[in-house]
Amino acid sequence: MMVLSYDVTIMKPNTKLDELTSFYKLLANESRLAILLALRDGEDNVAGICGQTGLSQTLVSHQLAALHHSDVVRSRKDGRRTFYALADKHIDIIVGFALDHLAEKEVHHE
Q: Which ranges carry the HTH arsR-type domain (predicted)?
């Protein structure tokens, strides 16, 4: 890292860092996190996710598209209905570790 002045820093290009930043920006959205929490219980369709989260169908569909495009959720067709699930165990683990971390902080602050 090279410092040009006290407020401007130029970092070397780092593809992994860019990918990680994009991933966490994707997760840094309350609606998307609500959807991921709902899908931790197993696959569901848009109506079911709306029922679990209280989000509108339009919002859930829009956020699922972003999550699906980034391979965070996967979809499965069953007739005319589409069911969504977490893409893999890593997504569940990431969300679970974040929840564990927050729960641990609560215990230490009591």
A: 12-106
| Over residues 57-76, mean pLDDT | 98
Under DSSP, the state recorded for 45 is E
* C-alpha count within 13 angstroms, C-beta hemisphere, residue 41: 10
Confidence of residue 11 (pLDDT cuts 50, 70, 90): confident
60 in a structural domain: yes
Please tell me the total count of domains within the chain.
1
Q: Is 33 exposed, middle or buried (0-12, 13-18, 19+ CB in 10 A)?
A: middle
**3-27 mean pLDDT:** 80
In a domain, 36, yes or no: yes
The model's pTM: 0.84
In angstroms, what CA-CA distances link 28 with 4, 48, 83, 104, 107?
Answer: 30, 22, 23, 20, 24
